[in-house]
Fold this sequence. Notes:
By secondary structure, the protein is mostly helical. Helix content is 81%, strand content 0%. Among the domains are: 17-146, no CATH class; 150-260. The protein has 26 helices and no strands. It is globular, with a radius of gyration of 33 Å.
Amino acid sequence: MSQENLEDASPIPDYELEQYFPERHDLSESDRERLREQHGRIRTWFLMNPERFRDLQRWLNQARMGYTYDIYLTRIVGYTLMAAAVGLFLGALFAVQMITFGGFAAVGIESMPVAVVLSLLIVVFSTALFAVGAFGTGYYYPRMQVSSRERNINVLLPHAIVYMYALSHGGMNTFEVVKELADAEEVYGEVSNEFDMVVRDVELFGNDLFTALRDARNLTPSENLEQFIDDMISVLDSGSDFAAFLEDEAETYMDEARDEQDSFLGTLSILSEIFVVAFVAAPLFLIVTLLVISLLGGEALLQTYFLVYVGLPFGMLAFLVAVDILSKPYAEHTDQLEVDEGEFEREWGTQVTEHPLYEDYETEKQRNARREMLANPIQHIRDRSPLLSLVVSVPIALFSLLFLLGTGAVPRSFSGMLEMPIQSTIGLFVIPFLITTVPLAIFYEGKRRRQKKIEKRFPDTLNILSSANQMGIRLVDALNLVARWSEGVLAEELRKVRNDIRWNHDIERALLQFANRLRVPQVTRTMKLIAKGNYSSGDLAEIISIAAEDTRNRHQIERKRRSEMSAYTAIVIIGFLVYLAVVVMLDTSYLTPISQLTTDAAEGVSQNQAAGGAAGVINVGQVPVQIYRTVFFHSALIQGIGSGLLAGKLAENEVLAGLKYSIGLVVITLVVFMLI
């Protein structure tokens, strides 16, 4: 392939959708009618106007969604009609309530014709809002998927290049390297999916490698991958050393990944500041405003309920989901690796499974596994999944709630809850919440601490293995040496790897099973690299050295993220403490005097009425002090849970990492309100 042809292929070509539907504008009316009968009027209109949806078709292709634009838009229209029906129903329901219960009269609209017109406008607005929202979301959803894939590719591309370098270092040809990368989706995510298209074009459609690479380059959403494929084509075309090229590119794109993360951290910092403004400052301002309105005799209690029990929790949940969507491409992959059957299973697997005692052996094996789990369930939950603790904690929480209600320790009536808001909230919410979340947080933090310990020691372990192998020490003996130097679960697992290699003589299978047992993302990626690199090369020391450098770079990136985000985590927690302080000040310096003034005014009225005087109670007596005090307490609890979960998401990119913060903030809130 000449350089001139390569330059012609560089620009991303415009998507000529008419190649799928040629000369639609010149079709006769009979042909158009046939299309309408075959596809329906809506889809036919989309087919007749492909130039309007070039961007959408490109997004669909880049997002790998498997739809043509006309089919996708036809489905979106169906969802839009359903959303419009929901909006019509809700708008009509709200309008009827406004007319029936005097909502328009409350805002000064007495004329019935005007009220009817406003009701129709409400219905139209609600219908249009739901319809436009559904169509806009569906239309731009592929674009959001493209952005997510782009970030994921940019983050994983340097590690994928290192993987390619390790394979090509041993002499594996270019297409085999691409094929191995395409098969490593559980480790390299969307990068593998992009190269899977190259393998498919070559093996399924018979294209040559250069054509397949050009097609992948033209379709990828990542500019970094686009540039890498351009350089890759140039190197292959010129006959240069492909392994040396990959070694240089790995460092270049590692710098790009660091820049990508810096940009992402800047976005998270802005989001943390938005959170403080939207969910600390704004709710405080609205609560104070509604309280003043109530003091002046207005009806503000319903709005306060809506703000605290609907707006605050659902707003926080939506914000947390948005942060999770933005952070998803940067999350570590923990999928298990696919392990090929060993030589023994391939040759003797059928004979073993057909043996008369094989079924009894499997039954006894499963029975022993269950016994081991029951003998030490805590370790099983910690190592497998902390979420398994919910199987036990949730029923206990429900039982405790029923027990408190049954014994009368918690009031069952609304008036009783208002008389003892703290005691009621503790029984109905705080105790079940703590019973559910404390074990989950403990198990998660235990697993996370174990994972961090392994991640910290793992690069040094690889360096020792590489040095030992360079000195001529066999891998089995080197693993034995490292196992003696290491401690804890890592040492135990390394001894298992040593025994597995010694007994089965299958290094690749032993390393992959080692990664599956630990379930640590860095170990998973590294073991995949070493296992496949060792398969293609006899220079195991160099392969381990490459893996160690890749692991060290990833560890540095993660450490930088935790270091920089700790400040914004502190901002979120301090924001909650400010919210709690203001709410407590409102309770002690505002609600308490109002309560005392109400009591004094009521006593004055009683004495005045006893003396035959006129009643003259001021409006302050109309403020529901106990209700506001209860609402303040509940808002602080909701604020504490939401702030804690967001703090964990910012710090560790895991929602479960925020449980410890949420539990701590809930306990602080409870202690503060019990003391005032």
